[in-house]
């Protein structure tokens, strides 16, 4: 009777243990799953990358030029002035246009000068008539003397009268020529071909030799560029080896906006003496100017290409950024924008900048989207010109 309870008691005691072990196993599984999921819950997403346009830094053969500051000069420059006094009757040109040699520019009222020509011509006719009469009288005096009916004194007086008449003819003939020249000066024409400036007088004003410059004409094609070369540059060129033929030195100029003139010039003059105030030698080159892009007095940068081309790294000018520390560019390295300090050579190659130091070639240089680039930020590189401005996540 006692075995029943004794036998049943272990079974009753085992049930709580089984339940407890199963509970512990479930709790451990939950804790393990929670621990495994915890890092995933705390992980932060990758920051968004800024899309930028890049271009590879290229190595290119560059002619290393010598740079100077020069000024454009017209080979011919004429100040137009009035040679006779009179009222200005007409201005016959448009200011700033190109005129040909002989083109009428001004006209002075010719009436008084035409009258002066007539008056001089009348005096010349009288002198010629007097010369004819004096010649006849000399012949008569000589005939009388030959027949012993005249005197030597009468013949000599007739000869003197003829000489005086001839002198009067010569003087009056010169007066006629002078009057005609003055009449021609009433028509002021262009003495050379070139571009004409503005007029300083208008119709109705009295002009003359004392009126000053009426207008100015400068020739257009070719044009000169004159620039000073220091003694240091001359010595450097001599130390660099054999002297180059100056007719083979290419002369290129750049305008104030950085653009390069499309025509190549050649040196045609080196001054024979040194300017004592600046210790420089004036040098002049001639450049074609078919499109009249060069203007007299224009300030330009002059580049002389004298040596053999050197291989240099070039990048677009738009990639350069300047600050107090100098000039730098952004390059893409390992998906991030990195600052590279560079040394830029003077001059350039077309629209590119020549890099002396800081880049070795092949770097992906950022040229588009620079406004939003900061050192170290993630960037996504695409070819230049394909940036749309949106932010793209990194992949």
Automatic annotation (TrEMBL):
<dbReference type="InterPro" id="IPR058624">
    <property type="entry name" value="MdtA-like_HH"/>
</dbReference>
<dbReference type="Pfam" id="PF25944">
    <property type="entry name" value="Beta-barrel_RND"/>
</dbReference>
<feature type="domain" description="Multidrug resistance protein MdtA-like barrel-sandwich hybrid">
    <location>
        <begin position="77"/>
        <end position="207"/>
    </location>
</feature>
<feature type="domain" description="Multidrug resistance protein MdtA-like alpha-helical hairpin">
    <location>
        <begin position="117"/>
        <end position="186"/>
    </location>
</feature>
<dbReference type="Pfam" id="PF25876">
    <property type="entry name" value="HH_MFP_RND"/>
</dbReference>
<dbReference type="InterPro" id="IPR058626">
    <property type="entry name" value="MdtA-like_b-barrel"/>
</dbReference>
<feature type="domain" description="Multidrug resistance protein MdtA-like beta-barrel">
    <location>
        <begin position="222"/>
        <end position="307"/>
    </location>
</feature>
<comment type="similarity">
    <text>Belongs to the membrane fusion protein (MFP) (TC 8.A.1) family.</text>
</comment>
<feature type="domain" description="Multidrug resistance protein MdtA-like C-terminal permuted SH3">
    <location>
        <begin position="313"/>
        <end position="372"/>
    </location>
</feature>
<dbReference type="GO" id="GO:0005886">
    <property type="term" value="C:plasma membrane"/>
</dbReference>
<dbReference type="Pfam" id="PF25967">
    <property type="entry name" value="RND-MFP_C"/>
</dbReference>
<dbReference type="GO" id="GO:0030313">
    <property type="term" value="C:cell envelope"/>
</dbReference>
<dbReference type="InterPro" id="IPR006143">
    <property type="entry name" value="RND_pump_MFP"/>
</dbReference>
<dbReference type="InterPro" id="IPR058625">
    <property type="entry name" value="MdtA-like_BSH"/>
</dbReference>
<dbReference type="GO" id="GO:0046677">
    <property type="term" value="P:response to antibiotic"/>
</dbReference>
<dbReference type="InterPro" id="IPR058627">
    <property type="entry name" value="MdtA-like_C"/>
</dbReference>
<dbReference type="GO" id="GO:0022857">
    <property type="term" value="F:transmembrane transporter activity"/>
</dbReference>
<protein>
    <submittedName>
        <fullName>Efflux RND transporter periplasmic adaptor subunit</fullName>
    </submittedName>
</protein>
<dbReference type="Pfam" id="PF25917">
    <property type="entry name" value="BSH_RND"/>
</dbReference>
